What does this fold into?
Amino acid sequence: MFQIYCPHCEELREEEEFHPKGQAHIVRPAEPEACSDEEWGDYLFFRDNPRGIHHEMWVHAVGCRKFFNVTRHTVSYAILETYKIGEQPSVTAEPSASEAAASTADVRQGVRA
Ligand SMILES: [Zn+2]
It folds into this structure.
């Protein structure tokens, strides 16, 4: 029996009550008109697919119906923590070279991750 901790209900609930909704912490560009087509396309369609630590948005669909974030290891499937939207994860991966370059690009665009 697999259970996930809902930070809103503040208790462990059955896995069947939850649905993953994709990558967490995706920030909409502050000025979409200023984005190039490539930058806007990246925002809309491209998501990380890391081997290791990944932050995901999940919904407690058959419970409180609220969204929250999960830090999950994509190799072991272990859920390392859950936290509410707007909070920051306490478990993070070391940024790879490509992620470091991406965060530098975000700073240039005035976007905060
Ligand atoms: Zn809940």
